[in-house]
């Protein structure tokens, strides 16, 4: 039962220095668009590594390359020390990919039965069904399942071969809160079984809830790396939006302002802490209107950080 | 350096022969089950040829018993071709276009599934569906159309038609690698309805204009239907069977070549 799984203790294992997958100076362009830009990444045995980034950051491209489904323009990819395209490597890897349509007339159990047959030493089907929480719906055609149930079937397909390394590409995209929590507990089950997981997501809270280590990817490059606590601190920025008579240059000079842009007649101001800046803005411009403070999106937060501290960032990463 | 920190690759156990056979069998089994459960597939591949056969071979056929029997026998061979072509183009072409275009093939390629198993599964499904279609046509022909032929001849006709699944699966594969998922069913209809008509599967070729008769020779269904008709002594001319077999082999290689081009393009080795 799914409830039993969510009660399993979550003991993140100590990070081991052994790397199971690695990319070197990976480059990929699609026409004009640079999908990956000189990307170096290392996945360590037993860890859950989250690749966090907005849509179009290059997460899926990277996963596809680690799976041997796409060729880099230059640079190299190795998984378990070899080319991921090799059959011997593929039997040790499982993948949950974003897919437009899955054959709808096959039942959940049938999909798992088929994928299990691809692996040399698969889990018993009953166990796969149990881990993925599909026991009650195993005989339903895929087309009749809800979004969360469909994701669980795709999850089951990824784990049925009992692989050592799992790639989960946006496993909870489009799921409601409850389905997301269930998926999280299932992912933790994998970690407690000693699996290595690379997960992509554009939710910071998801990376925070699951990961040992987070890489933030933006426009095909890693812009930040750290533990969830480190990343959260750095992504805690706010965005202030207001219409003001002040000159944009003056706003940029205010203490605590990371960056400011004029969007028509409104200002968009990136800051770490909103209150001191708002106080100062109101003091200088009593005509200020349309004030809005929001949590900066990841993209804004990291763009602001990388624009301001580009030098520091690269120093920090090379440590 | 990179190499030193990697663990030595522990080779996963190789798949045993028994497991490999089981894998191929499962792939074929589930491909078949998947198709059987799609109403549109079952209707367009089994019901249509059967319907046309009943219409042209039984209902609208001549009242003269000898002519009637000849017509029903002739159409058994040509509608058999029509059925096999539909089964192959829809089962291979449309399903490949959809699974490829909507990401399912990627999921399978990310697993250790041998690619050959995927295609073998679709071929087996096409062969099984073809056998079912032809068996149904033969039953209708014998019961309602007065068709009579020696068992050996019927078996030979069946074998030729079912073997026709091979060139047309190759054609389906070529279409599947270049058609978009949404337009694939329409495209297949647009190709195979005119193609089968011009090859003389609907109306015997000798009743069609001369220009069309020579054009038919460049269409693969013409060669399959002539092979089938030859086997029951109703071929158009005494062209040796080998000519048609060679033509079908050539078409198969051509389509496989096109499919291989699409395959490598997808693998990102030609265009990145």
What does this 3D model show about the protein?
The complex is a heterodimer of chains A (319) and B (272). Chain A has 319 residues and is α/β, with parallel strands linked by helices. Chain A contains 13 helices and 13 strands. Chain A has helices at 2-6, 59-66, 87-90, 108-116, 125-131, 147-159, 177-192, 204-210, 228-234, 248-253, 274-284, 298-308, 310-318, and strands at residues 19-30, 33-44, 48-52, 74-79, 93-96, 165-169, 196-201, 213-218, 221-226, 238-243, 257-263, 266-271, 289-295. Chain A folds into two domains: 2-233, Rossmann fold (3-Layer(aba) Sandwich); 235-318, YebC, transcriptional regulation domain (Alpha-Beta Plaits), CATH 3.30.70. A six-stranded mixed β-sheet of chain A has the order 5-6-7-3-8-9, sandwiched between helices. By secondary structure, chain B is mostly helical. Chain B has one domain. In chain B, helix 3 (39-59) packs antiparallel against helix 4 and helix 4 (65-101) runs antiparallel to helix 6 (115-144). Chain B is globular. The two termini of chain B are 28 Å apart. The relative contact order of chain B is 0.12. The model of chain B is unreliable at 1-9 (pLDDT under 50). Classes of the chains: A alpha/beta (319), B mainly alpha (272). Chains A and B meet through strand 1, helix 3, strand 5 and helix 4 of A and helix 1, helix 2, helix 4 and helix 5 of B.
């Amino acid at each position: 039962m799914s409830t039993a799984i969510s009660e399993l203790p979550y003991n993140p294992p100590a990070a081991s220095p052994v790397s199971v997958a690695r990319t070197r100076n990976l480059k990929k362009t699609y026409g004009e668009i640079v999908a990956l830009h000189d990307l170096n990444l290392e996945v360590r045995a037993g860890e859950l590594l989250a690749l966090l980034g907005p849509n179009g950051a290059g997460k899926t491209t990277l996963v596809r390359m680690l799976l041997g489904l796409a060729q880099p323009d230059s640079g190299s990819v190795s998984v378990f020390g070899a080319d991921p395209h090799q059959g011997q490597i593929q039997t040790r890897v499982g993948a949950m990919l974003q897919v437009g349509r899955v054959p709808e007339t096959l039942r959940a159990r049938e999909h798992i039965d088929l994928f299990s047959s691809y692996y040399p030493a698969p889990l018993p089907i009953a166990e796969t069904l149990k881990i993925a929480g599909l026991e009650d719906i195993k005989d339903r055609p895929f087309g009749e399942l809800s979004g969360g149930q469909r994701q669980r079937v795709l999850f089951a397909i990824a784990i049925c071969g009992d692989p050592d390394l799992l790639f989960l590409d946006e496993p909870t995209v489009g799921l409601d809160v409850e389905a997301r929590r269930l998926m999280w507990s299932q992912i933790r089950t994998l970690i407690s079984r000693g699996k290595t997981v690379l997960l992509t997501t554009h939710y910071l809270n998801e990376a925070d809830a699951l990961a040992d280590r987070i890489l933030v990817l933006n426009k095909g490059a890693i812009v930040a790396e750290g533990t969830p606590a480190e990343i959260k601190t750095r992504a805690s920025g706010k965005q202030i939006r207001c219409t003001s008579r002040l000159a944009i240059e003056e706003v940029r000079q205010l203490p605590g302002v990371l960056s400011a842009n004029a969007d028509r007649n409104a200002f968009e101001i990136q800051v770490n802490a909103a209150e001191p800046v708002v106080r100062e803005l109101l003091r200088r411009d009593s005509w200020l209107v349309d004030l809005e403070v929001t949590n900066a999106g990841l993209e804004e937060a990291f763009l602001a950080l990388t624009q301001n501290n580009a030098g520091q960032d690269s120093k920090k990463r090379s440590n | 350096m990179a190499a030193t920190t990697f663990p030595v690759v522990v080779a996963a156990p190789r798949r045993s022969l028994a497991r490999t056979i089981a894998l191929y069998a499962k792939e074929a089994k589930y491909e078949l089950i998947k198709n059987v459960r799609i109403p549109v597939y079952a209707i367009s591949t089994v019901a249509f040829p059967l319907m046309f056969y009943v219409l042209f071979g039984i209902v609208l056929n001549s009242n003269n018993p000898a002519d009637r029997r000849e017509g029903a026998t002739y159409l058994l061979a040509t509608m058999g071709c029509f059925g096999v072509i539909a089964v192959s183009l829809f089962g291979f072409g449309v399903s490949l276009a959809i699974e490829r275009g909507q990401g399912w093939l990627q999921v399978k390629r990310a697993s250790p599934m041998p690619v050959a198993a995927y295609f073998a599964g679709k071929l087996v499904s096409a062969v099984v569906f073809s056998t079912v279609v032809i068996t149904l046509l033969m039953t209708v022909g014998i019961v309602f159309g007065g068709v009579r032929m020696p068992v050996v001849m019927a078996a030979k006709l069946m074998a030729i038609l079912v073997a026709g699944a091979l060139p047309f699966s190759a054609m389906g594969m070529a279409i599947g690698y270049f058609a978009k998922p949404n337009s694939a069913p329409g495209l297949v209809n647009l190709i195979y309805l005119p193609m089968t008509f011009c090859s003389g599967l609907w109306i015997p070729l000798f009743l069609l204009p001369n220009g069309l008769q020579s054009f038919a020779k460049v269409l693969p269904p013409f060669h399959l239907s002539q092979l089938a008709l030859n086997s029951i002594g109703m071929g158009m001319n005494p062209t040796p069977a080998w000519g048609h077999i060679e033509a079908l082999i050539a078409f198969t290689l051509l389509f496989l070549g096109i499919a291989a081009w699409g395959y490598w393009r997808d693998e990102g080795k030609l265009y990145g």
